[in-house]
Amino acid sequence: MDRKIQTLKRFRIVRMILSLSRVRAVKLLVPLAVIALVCWEGQHELSQIHLGTIVHELQQVPGSAVMQMLGMALLAVAVMSTYDYLIRAHFRLKISLWSTFRYAWIANTFNNLIGFAGLAGVGLRTMLYRKSGVPISVLTPAIVFLSPLMITGLSILSWANICGLLPAKELLQEHHWLVFAVWGTAIYLPFFILVQRSALYARWMNSGRGRTPWGTVAASLSTSLLEWAFAGITFWIIASHLLDGVHFVAIFSIFTIAAIAGILSMAPGGIGAFDLIALLGLTQLGISTDKAMAVLVIYRLFYYIIPWLIGLVLAALEMGLQGRRGVRE
């Protein structure tokens, strides 16, 4: 009898493990499918990349242009701190403006580079805010409030593409699956607004204070739109310095479609999917593969790597300051 019970227990454990593995498999299936599809469609462009030519293109960039590109990239990353100022105001967090900016920079730059489906940003925000005295009962709804709104700006840009304000017809015609990606991202916007204004969301997130005000919803959408707009402008400024005769709307449209592919891939910073779709779009404009790749290399360096290094220094200083406070106490 004991053996039968043990066998049943083991069988249940096996079934639980199998069910968990299926859930993980489903979560991995979509991003892997997106990355595989993008790689398959971009294999021609990838075969034409020459590292030596890319290095040569980068060496031709004047110092003044480098400073302008870097300055814009750092400004774009700084704009992302508006997310933290939003939750600071909405949840009435008792943290100074400077501390909020530091925490935002650390969390956002680590999340951009490392990702883990947003877990890097969530983990760092939780740790930093907790050590600043924010109770977990306040912090948990604040983090949950923040997570779903980060792609709403990209959803707005998707509607701009659908309405013809940010056209990318050639890219969408040649790669039909991107049309579904654009529509899927666009549909997220009304869904987000409905959830934010729902009574159930109000009871759980707003602690009985009523439905989320339209002003807060508008601020959330504006914050996310600012993030993606500044990232796109950074991409355009880099492209305008390295490429001849490129138009803002054309480059920004390519950035939008590439960013959507990057989000669907769930890779850190959309690496792989974003780069290949951007590469495909730029080459459709008649730009050589090497020059297009040079744009992507500088964008990755200035928007991801350098801000992350600054975030690393800020994180080290933050840990040092908190360690000193602990010793004093």
Automatic annotation (TrEMBL):
- The superkingdom of the source organism is Bacteria
EC number in record: 2.3.2.3
Matches recorded under Pfam families? LPG_synthase_TM (PF03706)
What are the UniProt keywords, alphabetically?
A: Antibiotic resistance, Cell membrane, Lipid metabolism, Membrane, Transferase, Transmembrane, Transmembrane helix
Q: In its keyword annotation, does this UniProt entry include Aminoacyl-tRNA synthetase?
A: no
Q: Name where it's found.
A: Cell membrane
Membrane topology term reads:
Multi-pass membrane protein
A GO biological process of this protein is: lipid metabolic process
Which spans are transmembrane here?
Answer: 65-83, 103-124, 136-157, 177-195, 216-239, 245-264, 271-289, 301-321
Q: Which GO terms describe its molecular function?
A: phosphatidylglycerol lysyltransferase activity
Reactions this protein catalyses: L-lysyl-tRNA(Lys) + a 1,2-diacyl-sn-glycero-3-phospho-(1'-sn-glycerol) = a 1,2-diacyl-sn-glycero-3-phospho-1'-(3'-O-L-lysyl)-sn-glycerol + tRNA(Lys)
Q: What does this protein do?
A: Catalyzes the transfer of a lysyl group from L-lysyl-tRNA(Lys) to membrane-bound phosphatidylglycerol (PG), which produces lysylphosphatidylglycerol (LPG), a major component of the bacterial membrane with a positive net charge. LPG synthesis contributes to bacterial virulence as it is involved in the resistance mechanism against cationic antimicrobial peptides (CAMP) produces by the host's immune system (defensins, cathelicidins) and by the competing microorganisms.
What the record says about family reads: Belongs to the LPG synthase family.
Protein name as it appears in the record: Phosphatidylglycerol lysyltransferase
**Name of the encoding gene:** mprF
